[in-house]
Amino acid sequence: MKKKILLGLGLTTVVVAGIGYVVTKPYFDEKARIELLADWLDTNRGDTESWLHDYEFKLPINPKVADWNTENVKLPQVLFTIENREDKSKVSYWALNIDGTDPQLLIPEGVFPPPVYRSTTDYAKYMSRSPNGRYLVIPQKNSTVLYDLENGEVTNISEESGSTRHDIMWDRDSTQVVVKKRDELLLVKLDTKEVVKFTDVNGSYARYMTSFAKPYMNQSEQAIYLSYNPSLAWFGCGWEDDEYLETFGGQDVPKCGNTFVFDAKTLKLVDRGDFTPVSYDCNVWGGKYGDGFYCLGGEGGGKVYHSGRPSEKMGNFRATVDLLAFNGGDMWFVPAHGRNITRVLHQPTENSPTTEMIYTYGVNGERLSAFGLGFSRYVIEHKETDDWSESLYPLPTYADIEKAKAVLEERNHG
Known about the structure:
By secondary structure, the chain is α+β, with helices and mostly antiparallel strands. It has six helices and 28 strands.
């Protein structure tokens, strides 16, 4: 009988403790959340228009390579590399939900060396994944490679150095990818791994086009826009140079305009016109994955445009950035160093004064600033609506901010 009584008392104690945990956990979670808001408010000198949230996550021990198929992916993901601390020549490639959950190993250590890193640029930020999840385009020191996650096949798609800007556009059905880097523009047919060069389609003289023109992509049109400075003679309006006529003269398109438009499936010229702001007003810095571009320097410095004929101004951004996407009226960027995501809201919401949210990521207690951080095009744009953004850390409300201010006041006078 005593045993039964003791056992009953033990169960009661466990139940009471469990109830206490369930009841108190939300309180402490909320307290910690407000404390973090107060920390940022203090760091940011009271500014409530810009906010930062850091997602902390841990890598699984002895992970297995994840299934490459992204059919069931519900949230956008970031791509990143993890360097072996004991042997820096070894690096693994990972995917992570944008809310810091479900890290997945894509490529184990030993397959590739670390991507190139120069100055403040980690060229891993230019790696990109196909919409179906099967393929990765990865910059390497002396080349750019295509990696097939299904069978581990590696295809060299370019012999030029990978330490240059990459503009990458996948076909929606994952049948091909177009890669623009320096003076190369390449179309890769994914089923056969065949590489078609821009000059293969348009002639050797077309290399001047890719050398001088600034690219930006239009995913919805499956088109490549190449913007150029009209002062360059070969691109001049009405130019009757034999090489120009031989290259593009046979196309039934206008002979004038500062922007050439090419079909992404064939690399053939389909249109020409003044679709981009003039170079004095806008030095095009192409959208990394979005249907638009950012103006770097000049009179138009900091302006963001949606690609089109002509382009449409969407908003302003004050720093050197790569445009990720437009989504639900918001603009998404990755800064030049490529280590966080910035979301710029079109305007404050009814419940929050914040118009800029910065999302950073920390792994095993360290920020991903120590590692490569890239983005899959499909994971930002694979949904037509912005409902996935609801999974991100929410904008701080006016009530949250007042609570954080009260915490700061208590700290300063406590």
